[in-house]
Amino acid sequence: MDQPTQPPGGTPPPEGAPRAAAERPQRRTPPPDATGDEATYFAKLREQRTPIVVELLDGTVFRGVIEYYDRDMIKVNRLDGSGPNVFVRKKHVRLVWEDPEKSAT
Questions:
Q1: Residues 62/86, Cβ–Cβ less than 8 Å
Q2: N or C: which end of the chain has fewer CB within 10 A?
Q3: 97 falls within a domain
């Protein structure tokens, strides 16, 4: 019994042939958590002092310009004395967009 037994339905693979597990395609790497586009967009808004609207998850809306931002927060300076300046945690933000009402003036 020196000869290996033959698998049912075919001949055994030749010596040195890749195994079936090695032939599987490599798993795709997941996409990155951050692309850097958010920081670029916030930097542009801050430098140009573009009026923005920030809507929170609970529906609260703030209007103003971005004075400061980092990985976790945005500081919004209110325009026209419409209220105090606020620090907003990004995890509570639903949307940020340029304010069409203030941009046209």
A1: yes
A2: N
A3: yes
Q: Is residue 28 part of a domain?
A: no
3-state DSSP assignment of residue 86: strand
Distance CA 83, CA 80 (A): 8
How far is CA 54 from its chain centroid? 18
- Tell me if 52 sits within 8 A of 99, measured CB to CB: yes
The pLDDT value recorded for residue 76 is 95
Range(s) of the domain holding residue 77:
50-103
Would 3 be classed as within a structural domain? Answer: no
Residue at 23 is within a domain: no
Number of domains composing the chain? 1
Helices (H), the chain: 20-23, 37-47, 100-103
